[in-house]
Amino acid sequence: MDTYILGTGLSHDGSTVLLKNGKIIVAIEKERLSRIKHDGGNDFDTVQYCLDFEGINASDLTLIVQASNFENNISPNQYAGRRYFDKHIQTPVVTLSHHLAHAWSAVGMSPFKECNIMVVDGAGSPYNQCLDLEGAKIPPYLFSSGMYCEKDSFYYFDGKDLTTLFKDFSEVKLHQSRASLKLPTNYHSIGGLYHAASHYCFGNLNDVGKLMGLAPYGILNGKPPLFKLENGLIEVLYENVDLYFKKPSSGYDAFKKDFTHYADIARWVQDETEKAIIYLFQERSKLRPHANFAYAGGVALNAVANYKLRLSGIVKNLYTQPAAGDNGLAIGCAYYGWHKILGQPKATIPDQVFFGREYSTDDVEQAIVNAGISDNPVFSIKQTLDFVSLTAAELARGKVVGWFQGGAEFGPRALGHRSILADPRIKGIKNHINSKIKFREDFRPFAPSVRIDDVQKYFIHGWESPYMILIDEIKPEWKNQLDGIVHQDGTCRVQTVTSAFNPDFYQLIGDFEAKTGIGVLLNTSLNRKGMPIVETPAEALSLFLSGAIDVLILNNFIICKKP
Predict the structure, then answer these.
(1) Shortest CA distance to 236 belongs to which of 171, 283, 318, 313?
(2) Which residues of the chain have pLDDT under 70?
(3) What's residue 173's pLDDT?
(4) Fewest beta carbons less than 10 Å away: which of 23, 56, 266, 363?
(5) Cα 343 to Cα 329: distance, rounded to the nearest angstrom
(6) Cβ within 8 Å of residue 359, ≥6 positions away
(7) pLDDT tens figures, 175-233
(8) Where are the beta strands (DSSP E) in 384-531?
(9) What three-state secondary structure class fits 555?
(10) Cα dist from 18 to 6, 68, 148, whole Å
């Protein structure tokens, strides 16, 4: 009899994962279904999606494991609206604290038999709700004087169980408003300051990725430290924050008008964040040195800091969980159930992250009919087994392609199943996609996708980077030729592709190289500003019809806009 464990995350960036006999068979983020960026809380639709995929009911589940952020007394039938589980459900329901769920997500996804684990984010569970305090070294805060929440946690996984070695906390001052900066959650966390700085620059707490993209346009100008790094602890130096954060953005016009100011702030915050992360890894490594580190929590998505950490030599083998943010909580919940509660050994680790359901030929044909383009002479529509080679030809002709294949990626990056692709050699391609397709700011960069066999040809370090959460430097001889994927400072957020990870995408890059001599594609997510990555063929068609994408590939259907 099969063992099913459902892991579900109820924080922001909510998601649900279904494990079958210890392996992920389906997973979906809530935003992909609700179409609301960073959606979380109620998990009715994501649970339904996972159960429907396998054709089972809630009564078939062996165990349900859930995690939120600030609470652990969560009713199985009520959370920000009706949940999938009614009050009569017989399946056991277990609730994890926040960092513990992050840590088990790193355990379950990492290739290591044993390793250290680091979790760093904006804010986790309150001290009195943490389930992982036993044996941990904890700074002597006066926890009774306010609400203190997790900000970084350090663990060791011995191949079977997780041991907590160190946990640091910060007082939470929700909606605390200083003259200079609005702090969303933790007062002294790396992630909290990064979120607050993003809000300062863009007026949106969810635009943390933009800050990393903006930073290379700024200069440091000898600014003072933002973090106090002493005795293995990290605190924000608000006296220095107050000196410089004096013009919070009131919108995009204000941002453009004072672009240099915001770019300099972004550079400063990014640089200080990198120093703080390196310090954290250096200090925690002293507690238990180990060659292997698995890394999760929202701060782990900072690809530039990961690059600096890699260069530091502190960590020999670093695995960053690809859904390191709160969307990964569901993964940790499911693996906790499998390993800790059921006592099962580690199953085969996932060799890809395409955990969404696949859409059939009938689904695609119905979406085309519903879009009203079946007999429209403005479009050509062809179904062919030769779609990979023909797509490479369109890319070589300078066309921008929407690429929709199989199940969607789980996590924030488009990795070759829900992507917009282009030839990175085309002059002005970055501005064209930003302004005419993504409808977003012109400083935002795009990623290169390259076959693992060729990564050292184009990039200085040539690291393996399948999940696009590590940057590299372009080799000087390629910088001008591949302008579309090179950032202001000569770096690139690389995705390396193997035939095992994504055979069609691997072949596409190879076919493109055969036609052009270049084995690199510009890759960005199949969405526009403010929109989650598309989940369905209908959503892909809607995006295609409302912007300047030239060609849309839906499975093996090629849909072209005629000139």
Answers:
(1) 171
(2) 73, 75-81, 86-87, 142-145, 174-185, 204-207
(3) 75
(4) 23
(5) 20
(6) 536, 537, 555
(7) 555 556 666 567 899 999 998 899 899 986 566 789 999 999 999 989 999 999 999 99
(8) 401-404, 418-422, 447-451, 471-473, 491-493, 495-497, 520-525
(9) coil
(10) 5, 17, 32
The residues that bridge with 18 in the sheet, in sequence order, are: 6, 26
- Separation CA 50–CA 27 (nearest Å): 7
**Contact assessment for residue 35 and residue 68, using Cβ atoms and an 8 Å cutoff:** no
* CA dist 240 → 44, 180, 225, 228, 269 (Å): 45, 10, 7, 11, 12
Helices and strands, number each (H, E), in the chain: 17, 24
Burial of 161 (0-12, 13-18, 19+ CB in 10 A): exposed
pTM (2 d.p.): 0.96
Rounded to the nearest 5 degrees, what angle is found at the Cα of 34, between the Cα atoms of 94 and 299? 65
Q: Output the pLDDT for position 349.
A: 87
What are the residue ranges of helices labelled H in 411-472?
A: 429-433, 455-458
C-alpha torsion 43→47→48→52, nearest 10: 160
Q: Distance between CA 247 and CA 197 in Å, rounded? A: 11
- Cα–Cα–Cα angle for 52, 18, 98, rounded to 5 degrees: 130
476 half-sphere exposure, CB direction, 13 A CA radius: 0
Which residues are 93's β-sheet partners? 64
